[in-house]
Amino acid sequence: MGQKINPLGFRLGATQGHHSLWFAQPQNYSEGLQEDQKIREWIKNYVQKNIQISSGVEGIACIKIQKRIDLIQVIIYMGFPKLLLEGKGGPRRIEELQIDVQKEINCVNRKLNIALTRITNPYGHPNILAEFIAGQLKNRVSFRKAMKKAIELTEQAGTKGIQVQIAGRIDGKEIARVEWIREGRVPLQTIRAKIDYCSYAVGTIYGVLGIKIWIFVDEEA
């Protein structure tokens, strides 16, 4: 039987880099890891609260963290940074977020720097796509329709292939099942194939559904 491995961890060092870059002594490693987790959670919650739209898509593709002795550099890759920066108090939001995170992680002797980067093809990124599908499922759209719409959006972003899988009590049925759909090539066995992946849990009124998305971006020679 084929064993499923996380495609990102499988490709580390080949086509995939780490989302957190820092060094720590073995006894301090767990603290650094929890700090990263806190920063990511806090940023996601803040964006969710302050986003200027009702579609439910936060648009955070990934949050990269780099730590030095005196500095923590956080880069937020967003598909729609306008949604966060528009409206009342928009431009000051980044500073506000910076102060909030600094208080939360209690970094006294280190400076925290948060930067926003816009990604060119938001729907070519699995996290944003999963949020889109989650929003559709919450609004009682049929899962097949949501999957097909998501695939259409990625095709416009110019990817080579995509696979979407939804598992759980789909459409409120008594028995949980797994449904999936694939378009184009998704070579999970090929290490030099750059594959983006995410798994996302969405709470519906019937229970929790799991969404998994694999996107085949490009093949390195």
UniProtKB/TrEMBL annotation:
Query: Where's the Small ribosomal subunit protein uS3 C-terminal domain?
Result: 133-215
One GO MF term, please?
A: structural constituent of ribosome
Compartment(s) of residence:
Plastid, Chloroplast
* Family of this protein: Belongs to the universal ribosomal protein uS3 family.
Give the quaternary structure: Part of the 30S ribosomal subunit.
Q: Which PANTHER family match?
A: 30S/40S RIBOSOMAL PROTEIN S3, SMALL RIBOSOMAL SUBUNIT PROTEIN US3C
What is this protein called in UniProt? Small ribosomal subunit protein uS3c
What organism is the protein native to? Castanopsis sclerophylla
